[in-house]
């Protein structure tokens, strides 16, 4: 491990930002000056979002490779931009590093960030680097471009609208359970023992937890199909919590159907192994980064035929509340059981 002090702050920054090429026409000036400069074509709007990740709160480096962490930190920001029905174009990355981290580790983190940028056509245009007392802190700000008439807020859902989700749910949560289990096994072992985590046949779950993707392909498909969601949100805290956000912002109620919730085969198997209810995992698990959106009922046929889109329910009047209809036709009130940063006392 090369101590960061041997390069110094400026040396490290130079190392991190060397050979960054700007790909977007909207990136006028990137890293290296006092600030970055961006410019979008006339008539376009700018979307800005930020996320702060703290070691021990949002990620665990015992099972998260730094490269994956960098990739995920970037992608979760892209996902927030995509959830507005916009395209991510630039990011700014601020990091706080304790003395535990050397030059190589920071380069690993950046290789993940840069891989995500290359995959999504996003430019890294600036950042900030500072020493910290303990742990790793990453804050990423993403700037995106939005056609003003295509904005999808949380507040536009109307009674009778259809409720749709992309992909499948609960896999990232099951991946996390698996990683936590293997961590516990690992910690209980003697140093001399050879540790092989039992991930075979569960690769998809691990990938969903460690390497999520932003569903930019979905917003592109909806655009091609001339479908404009009436409301949209990305699923970071679990379907239940995101539905309640839409219901609250749009002042509507929602009904979703248990048998309509898309769940992958590996997720279902894993849930059985852990003795967990798979629907609960899908409702409350989080970190799937799929899109949840509403669309007019008139588009039902069109939506039904789209690859990777699932119709899971419909929007109602607010007075009907928010509920899940189970397989045996019981109604269960939806509750936000997303991850709580500030536990209630
Ligand atoms: P200032 O003192 O003006 O904040 P810095 O020395 O912090 O300047 O940064 C110099 C340049 O390097 C700036 O353009 C900044 O955006 C970029 N930069 C600094 N840290 C990072 C980082 N971690 N990732 C990407 N760019 C960075
Ligand atoms: Mg600075």
Give the tags.
60s Ribosomal Protein L30, Chain: A; 2 domains; single chain; 345 residues; transferase; 7-stranded mixed beta sheet; 13 strands; alpha+beta; Phosphoribosyl-aminoimidazole Synthetase, Chain A, domain 2; binds magnesium ion
Structure in a nutshell:
The chain is an alpha+beta fold and 345 residues long.
What is the secondary structure topology, with strand pairs?
Layout: H1 4-17, E1 27-29, E2 37-38, E3 45-54, H2 66-82, E4 87-97, H3 103-120, E5 123-131, E6 136-146, E7 162-166, H4 171-187, H5 203-210, H6 216-224, E8 231-234, H7 239-250, E9 252-257, H8 265-274, H9 278-284, E10 291-295, H10 300-304, E11 309-317, E12 322-325, E13 331-333
Parallel strand pairs: 4-5, 9-12
Antiparallel strand pairs: 1-2, 3-6, 4-6, 7-10, 7-11, 8-10, 9-11, 12-13
Helix pairs in contact: 1-3, 2-3, 4-5, 4-8
This protein binds adenosine-5'-diphosphate and magnesium ion (MG).
Please provide a written account of the structure.
The protein has 345 residues and is α+β, with helices and mostly antiparallel strands. It folds into 2 domains: 2-144, 60s Ribosomal Protein L30, Chain: A, CATH 3.30.1330.10; 159-331, Phosphoribosyl-aminoimidazole Synthetase, Chain A, domain 2 (Alpha-Beta Complex). Helices cover 34% and strands 24% of the residues. It contains 10 helices and 13 strands. A hairpin with a 5-residue loop joins β12 and β13. The longest helix has 18 residues, at 103-120. The radius of gyration is 21 Å and the shape is globular. The model has no long low-confidence stretch (mean pLDDT 94). Pathway: Cofactor biosynthesis; thiamine diphosphate biosynthesis; thiamine diphosphate from thiamine phosphate: step 1/1.
């Amino acid at each position: 491990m090369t101590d960061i002090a041997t390069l110094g702050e400026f040396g490290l920054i130079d190392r991190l930002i060397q050979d960054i090429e700007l790909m977007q026409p909207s990136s006028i000036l990137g890293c290296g000056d006092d600030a970055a400069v961006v410019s979008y074509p006339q008539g376009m709007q700018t979307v800005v979002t930020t996320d702060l990740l703290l070691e021990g709160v949002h990620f665990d480096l015992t099972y998260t490779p730094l490269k994956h962490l960098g990739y995920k930190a970037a992608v979760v920001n892209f996902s927030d931009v995509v959830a507005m029905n916009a395209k991510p174009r630039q990011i700014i990355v601020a990091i706080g590093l304790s003395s535990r981290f050397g030059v190589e580790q920071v380069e690993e983190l950046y290789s993940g960030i840069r891989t995500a940028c290359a995959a999504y056509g996003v430019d890294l245009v600036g950042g900030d680097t500072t020493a910290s007392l303990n742990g790793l802190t990453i804050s990423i700000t993403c700037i995106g471009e939005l056609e003003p008439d295509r904005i999808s807020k949380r507040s536009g859902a109307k009674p009778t609208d259809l409720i749709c989700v992309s992909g499948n749910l609960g896999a990232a949560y099951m991946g996390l359970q698996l990683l936590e289990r293997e961590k516990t096994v690992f910690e209980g072992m003697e140093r001399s023992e050879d540790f092989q985590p039992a991930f075979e046949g569960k690769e998809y779950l691990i990938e969903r937890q460690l390497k999520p993707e932003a569903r930019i392909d979905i917003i592109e498909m909806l655009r091609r199909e001339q479908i404009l969601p009436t409301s949209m949100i990305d699923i970071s805290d679990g379907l239940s919590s995101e539905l309640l956000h839409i219901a609250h912002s749009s002042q509507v109620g929602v009904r979703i159907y248990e048998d309509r919730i898309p769940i992958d085969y590996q997720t279902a198997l894993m849930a059985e192994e852990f003795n967990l209810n798979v629907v609960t995992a899908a409702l409350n698990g989080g970190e799937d980064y799929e899109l949840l959106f509403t669309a007019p009922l008139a588009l039902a046929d069109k939506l039904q035929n789209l690859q990777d889109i699932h119709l899971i329910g419909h929007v109602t009047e607010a007075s009907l509340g928010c509920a899940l209809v189970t397989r045996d036709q019981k109604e269960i009130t939806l509750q936000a059981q997303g991850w709580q940063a500030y536990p209630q006392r």
